Amino acid sequence: MSKEILILYCSRTGFTQRYAQWLAEALDAEVLPLKNCPNPLPNTVQILLCGGGIYGSELAGLKKYRKLQKKYPDKEFLFFATGASPQSPILQERLLQYNFKTAPQPPFFYLQGGLNLEELAPSHKTMLNLYKSMMKRRREPSEEETRILALLDHSFDASSQEQLLPLLVYLKQL
Q1: Cis before 104? omega within 30
Q2: I want to staple 31 with a disulfide (CB 3.0 to 4.6 A). Which of 7, 40, 135, 148 is the partner?
Q3: Residue (of 51, 43, 59, 44) closest to 24 by Cα position
Q4: First CA to last CA across the chain, in angstroms?
């Protein structure tokens, strides 16, 4: 692949940053926190690979990424999200529909990261506890919901470079 890529990320607990750094190594690309995005973008950058954690189904940094898309319509944007939930096609599609409601939808990849309870902001801890309470009250939770609920009781790290393969294959085809 010969197109220059800039990887931008918004990470609150470190999982998105780790994936962004792994992508930068695999693609020989520059990686920056979203808050350090150059303005203007270098003319040589053709692809922006934008990542963020999922909080309440929303991709962190999405508002700023949308502003960049409007400012640079000639650039190609791809998105990746990280979260505590295990990967599944249903989850990926649900997150894509929630975050990118209008067509055309950009390429979007979900990567399981983990949960770092010690680094969560108080507001996110509150949201997590409300979600857990809601899940516990369900009369007949699905098998997936039961599995996710068990994950949310402690910090864990499920990130792996293998999860990047579909994204890397997609980029190589550009």
Answers
A1: yes
A2: 7
A3: 51
A4: 7
